[in-house]
Amino acid sequence: MSPDPRGARTPSPTPLAAVWRRARVTRCAPDGALYWDLRVEAEGLPAGTPGQFSLLAPAAPGAWDPLLPRPLSLLDAGAGWQRFLFKVVGRGTAQLAALRAGDRVGLLGPLGRAFGGLERDAEAAGEIVLVGGGVGIPPLHFLARRLSAAGRPCRALFGFNREAEIPRALLAALDVADAAGTEPATRPAAELCTLDGSAGVRGNPVARLVETLGDGPLAIKACGPAPMLAALRAAARAGDALELSLEERMACGVGVCRGCVVPVVDGAGGWRYAAICREGPVFDAASLAASAAAIALEPGHE
Amino acid sequence: MSEPRAVSLAAQVGELRLANPLLAASGCFGYGLECDPLLPPETFGAVVTKTITPLARAGNPMPRIAETPAGMLNSIGLENVGLAAFLADKLPALAARGVAPVVSIAAGSAEEFAALAGRLAAAPQAIAALELNLSCPNLAPHGANFATDPLAVERVTRAVKDVFPRAPVWAKLSPNVADIGLVARAAEAAGADAVSAINTLVGMDIDLATGRSPFARVTAGLSGPAIFPVALAAVYRVAQSVRIPVVAIGGAASTEMVLKFLAAGASAVQLGTALYIDPGLPARVLAELADALRARGCADLKPLRAQWLEASR
Q: Model's pTM, two decimal places?
């Protein structure tokens, strides 16, 4: 994609509104072959917005193994409660999946920079398209419902490997192209893609977007595997506004440890590292430096 | 029911008086204000700011962190804004807030350390102390690890002391040495007002899919509760070796660990990685320390520390 700074939001630290709580688990149940649906509540928890995340501590207090909390994107949130849909990928998420209603879990959130465009007239030009893959879909699902509620229609393209992996929690709130009995006026529409063709359209959501591109500019908001985001950057056109939500291993979640950085362009044509947890996870693609791989190991001490 | 007995958590590191014995460790609390209002800097007896080098550093490429059992490896690489931006932006912001930080500095030679300290000595804002980062394992080449060489520690400390009379100078020591007591004595001989012990341990991980370390610099710094026993032994050893105060650092993540550091001879305790796993920790430790004092019938930390120190000798 050609960098198009029009309307691009320059990364900058957002005010920290997160709270630390021992949140109460109200539900933790498997959904589909890979995902877990986790809901928590905590007094004083600020309402998060789509694209934000929270850090959840898998270990019991004093156990310290695993040590670090896990970042989970918000699937839904309101004042005092949050809901996540996460995939078990290691020890930390396996411990989170073992939580049961009534358990307590350490939670720091909501954190990070949300998707733009929820404000009316924020992006006057262009159809809004959400492109998500796998575990990157929950924040876009949240965004789709918020946009729909705000009277801003969007098109959602969500990709999975196969039908059995699709969580029902996602489908329930969407007007999925092949589902019946939905109410388009209140439910955002989504088109599903599966790599094996077992549900929806065979293929991936980026290919589907390219197949169906019209002439007008798009406001694309994406979250998913790095190769999917890279393909999207390559496919987006000069007039499209592209927002990418990046995923990274994190420690502090507030930008002080500098453990989750990504190179972003600075005003002088150079680059600097931005903390994904604080200046992201949602970045305007135009603000991301072309290639992290191009940045060499810093030379010895200055 | 009678009121709980009033206790004071005030701590003294040499001439520096702190409202409480907990400090935010360098590299784990940014420049002091990033965690506000979640964790205001005033929570701590003092805040040790992220290590400043003469020039800004971008730090190491990703990945920068990896998890170990109860620990964390980091290869951040001293990413920092550099002295000029620190003096222009960070220090004034803290001063406007009424916070006098312990400023952590690192450089490639004794002369560079002295030049940095000299510039900070001329800053109009209050500085509680300087902490010399003599042992960052992520500096290249060869780690710029002054802390493994008692003569180098002496040289750097003396050079800084010569140009920085306005506040105490603390020498931060590395655990990656044969005898940390020997290095602490070198810092004391050069005029250090206190020693901070310890910095991270040298650690490593290997990605079995590639057979290589995930880190560009191969080794990294290990922190977190996993290193606490090593830190406790180092603090004890240093406290037995020098007369100047010891500031403990290394894995403290509970009130019990803080108490053990104080019992080993520390005057104050820095919290680092633990802030990531529980931002509520400092407030809880302070409340529990006050309870511990009341339970022992002590009005402040002094008699408790004296009792422990007596028992340890």
A: 0.92
